[in-house]
Amino acid sequence: MYETREYEVNDTILQEGELGKGFCILEEGVVEVIRDNKILNEIDQKGAIFGELSEILMYNRGASVRAKTKTKVKYFDNKLEQLVAENPKFAVKMIRNLGRRLYHMNQLAIEGNTKNDILIDANDESSINARQASPVILVVEEKHHIISQLTDVFSSQGWKLRSASDESSTLKECEDTTFAAIIISLSLPKDAAIELRRKLKTNPKAMRSPIIGMSVKGDEASLKKATDAGFENFISKPIDGQSVRSTMYKILNLDPSDQYFDILKDALYFKVPSPMSPFVIDEIKENIEPRIRKTINEGIEKIIVDVSGLDEIGEDEIDVVGDIGEKLEEMMVPIKGAFVAKGDEAEMWTNLDGCEEWIVCKDISEAHQKLGQP
After folding, report:
1. Cβ–Cβ < 8 Å for 327, 288
2. Within a 10 A sphere around the Cβ of 268, how many other Cβ atoms?
3. Taking the model in full, what pTM does it have?
């Protein structure tokens, strides 16, 4: 059911960024929770649970856990659902553990705000309206064609772009507007990008906005200088639309699966992209299970996979669609499925594992109609 593990001082117990499989219960010692090289919390209470949040959400771990003293933990690698089903008292313990952690983090937030006034005023209508509207992103760049390329990328997601070309125009833009994110070209003359980031971090309207560096691919010297200056996120030139979208989804704290999945009427809709790069394939596969869980939580019990736009059917396309069928079968969820497919090979999609009972339709309208029948 579990294994006992022992760690020396400064040993990493759980690693930030890894897939959240498994969790721990503290037996002896003290551990530190670390994110971006900052210590967020210490855990010293015997019986405390940690690492379970990534397991629950099926996200990569958002922080590392390191042994501050000699430490002993119980490590559980079996599925959380199974453990809770077999031991309901454990579920209550875990809820209380999460509640205490949330209370502690709320207290830290209030203490930090008392010192720095960083939280948004609940009565500030301009801030409320900005959060409810589509994300508006400020791009600081001298090259008009780069602005044009990013405008196309962002508009495809319903995001708005405003631009500035230098420090003075950027600071003027930030006088009255809080942006969802600010992208600064590292190609600005001299060290203008680094100096601008420093000024924005002391600007009341910009200090809460994520600031992203935009570097020329392969320019390691500029990248290192920017990293040393405090830039934490980057996009690259030449602009790769899919890579930029994926990076911005994470920075804006948006659901990354929205890049590939949509809700049409009462069905989860997935249009297989063409062509598919290794980057896109990995992104889709990483998001399949979290998106299925979200879909079930929303009460949606139908899925439409659209392969009608594929010029050619290759191993990559079959592999991605097959992963969806296999995941649904593995999770044993009662979701009815349909393919939108054309051509002589349309029926072959139902040969994939987990898709044997799916129906094949010529368009989305027919798929909705047939999925709605008993």
Report:
1. yes
2. 24
3. 0.55
Helices (H), the chain: 52-57, 80-86, 88-116, 125-132, 144-155, 167-173, 192-200, 220-228, 241-251, 278-297, 315-331, 364-371
Same domain, 212 and 286: no
Give me the half-sphere count of Cα atoms (radius 13 Å) on the Cβ side of residue 237.
Answer: 21
Q: Which domain holds residue 296?
A: 256-371
How far is the C-alpha of 257 from the C-alpha of 69, rounded, in Å?
A: 39
Query: Cα angle at 156 between 150 and 162, to 5 degrees?
Result: 40
Domain at 86, CATH number: 2.60.120.10
Distance CA 288, CA 373 (A): 26
Specify if 96 maps to a domain: yes
Rg of the Cα atoms in the chain: 24
Query: DSSP character for 308?
Result: T
As a whole number of angstroms, the distance between CA 267 and CA 269 comes to: 6
How sure is the predictor about 131, in pLDDT bands with cuts at 50, 70 and 90? Answer: very low
154-201 tens-digit pLDDT: 998 889 999 999 999 999 999 888 999 999 999 998 889 999 999 998
Q: Is residue 121 part of a domain?
A: no
Question: What Cα–Cα distance (Å) separates residue 247 from each residue in 49, 165, 214, 235, 283?
Answer: 31, 22, 12, 7, 11
Torsion of CA 53, 57, 60, 62, to 10 degrees: -40
3-state secondary structure of 24: strand
Q: Are residues 275 and 320 in the same domain?
A: yes
Residues 277 and 351 in one domain: yes
CATH number at residue 359: 3.30.750.24
